[in-house]
Design brief:
Layout lengths: L1 H12 L1 H20 L13 H6 L3 H9 L15 H16 L1 H7 L2 H34 L12 H28 L4 H12 L1 H13 L3 H27 L1 E5 L1 E2 L8 H5 L4 E5 L6 H9 L1 H8 L3 H10 L5 H22 L2 H10 L2 E2 L7 H33 L5 H4 L4 H24 L17
Antiparallel strand pairs: 1-3, 2-4
Helix pairs in contact: 2-8, 2-9, 5-6, 5-7, 6-7, 7-8, 8-9, 9-20, 10-11, 11-20, 13-16, 14-15, 16-18, 17-18
């Protein structure tokens, strides 16, 4: 505990790091404040039905990503999700579009152009999603009398402008946090939206458990907390687990002492879960399809697709797991360039012991990556469907979302990334880091 307190003091003793943390917290507060502002022309007192209809299932997940703004008909209702969608589209197009492939190789200037393309695509996706959101509001439970100025053209035009502006503003906040603050700004905005629902979800779970048998209810809450911490630990292991591939160099130029050279890492770290949370996002996008088909069909076909669209049903979750495993392999294949890794290793004079440089090295890396992706994808799929499992044991929907799936993996991944950035600042200033591996560095002249 003393070491933790000392580390906090060290953090605030570094002016640059302290300024970045303050800026990050300030911009996140601005984002949360904007999420409370309801679209003009809608009575905020009549949004109870909207909140109830978006409290569970896939809509509940969307509401969680926006910190409840989706269920409040807020000007930030779409949040940062259109930007995420645009980033995924641009990344996938980079495989097939030569122009984007050229930009990816152009260094900083190419990245700036890709970012600009992503921003414009974000606006286009926001317009499409904004129109769909406004159209679905009456079916999600907003009564006609809640529209104070009617549902005419002025309401649509003003709402579309505000929804687009809200998403662009959220995108700008995320980029400013990444550039001037600490951590990945886009990920932090998603995480803060998810965390915003945590106190309410936990309070509802406690009330539901202790409202009957107090003693048994408290024991159940304690058991749920223990299981929750175990799932967090499992998520941390999934995010941080790597397979180290030993590498040797034919010739190395060492600057510094012999002790420093012996401490240098000589391996290629391949993550157990290289795809991160993207397979879950892809799979959830596909899982919207059965619900749409079920609405436009009848008879046996409707029964089958209704079963596949039930968020807590076995059919939905089995198909969900299969899609996550498939997309894990797909996304890993397009984002981990084993051929480029082998070429870079060959150019730097490095090689994997027992493997020839070049094509044979690329094949070996690809083989190892394929083998470790299978357990990683299965583990990821189990974490993704765990909320649906705990619901069958009496856990409420809102609280169950924190037992796995996209929400928990995002929170764990973002927290680890932010801590690592803070840790690097501390180690560069010769302080102990937040991690156990952080040690005081010897001052050099």
């Amino acid at each position: 505990m003393k070491k933790f307190i000392q580390t906090i003091k060290d953090i605030w003793s570094i002016d640059e790091l302290k300024g970045k943390i303050k800026l990050t917290l300030g911009l996140m507060i601005v984002y949360r404040f904007m999420a409370q502002v309801t679209l003009p022309g809608i009575d905020p007192q009549q949004l109870t039905a909207l909140g109830n209809s978006t409290s569970d299932g896939l809509l509940g997940l969307l509401s969680a990503f926006t910190g409840g703004a989706f269920s409040r008909a807020s000007i930030m209702a779409l949040g940062i999700m259109p930007y995420i969608s645009a980033s995924i589209v641009v990344q996938l197009m980079g495989i097939a579009v030569p122009y984007l492939q050229k930009l990816q190789k152009d260094g900083e200037s190419g990245r700036n152009k890709i970012n600009q393309i992503t921003r414009w695509l974000t606006i286009g996706i926001t317009i499409v999603q904004g129109g769909a959101y406004l159209t679905s509001l009456p079916t999600l439970g907003i009564p006609t009398e809640a529209y104070l100025l009617g549902q005419g053209g002025w309401f649509w035009i003003s709402s579309m402008i505000l929804l687009t502006a809200g998403t662009v503003f959220a995108m700008w906040l995320g980029e400013r946090i990444t550039e001037k603050g600490i951590g990945n700004g886009i990920s932090l905005l998603i995480m803060i939206g998810i965390i915003a629902r945590f106190p309410g979800a936990f309070a509802q779970e406690v009330i539901s458990k202790v409202s009957g048998d107090a003693a048994g209810g408290l024991m159940m809450i304690l058991l749920e907390i223990i299981v929750w911490f175990a799932i967090i630990l499992a998520s941390i292991l999934l995010v941080t687990a790597v397979r180290r591939i030993a590498v040797q160099y034919a010739r190395r130029t060492v600057v510094g002492s012999i002790e420093d050279a012996q401490g240098a890492r000589q391996y290629i770290p391949l993550k157990l879960n290289s795809a991160g949370v993207m397979p879950i996002i892809f799979a959830q996008a596909i899982m919207f399809v059965p619900g749409l088909i079920a609405r436009n069909s009848d008879g046996t076909l409707q029964t089958v697709f209704n079963a596949l669209s039930d968020f807590n049903g076995w059919g939905y979750n089995i198909l969900f797991c299969v899609l996550i495993i498939v997309f894990s392999y797909f996304y890993t294949a397009i984002t981990i360039p084993t051929n480029k890794m082998a070429d870079d290793l060959k150019k730097s004079g490095g090689f994997i012991p027992g493997t020839r440089p070049g094509t044979e090295t690329a094949e070996k890396l690809d083989s190892i990556l394929s083998k470790i992706t299978l357990p990683g994808s299965i583990f990821l799929a189990l974490l993704a469907v765990f909320p649906a499992i705990v619901i069958h044991f009496g856990v409420q929907q809102n609280w169950a979302l924190f037992y796995g799936g996209t929400s928990l993996i995002i929170m764990v991944g973002v927290a680890i990334d932010t801590i690592q950035q803070i840790n690097s600042y501390l180690l560069n200033r010769h302080y102990d880091g937040l991690m156990k591996t952080g040690t005081k560095r010897k001052a050099t002249i």
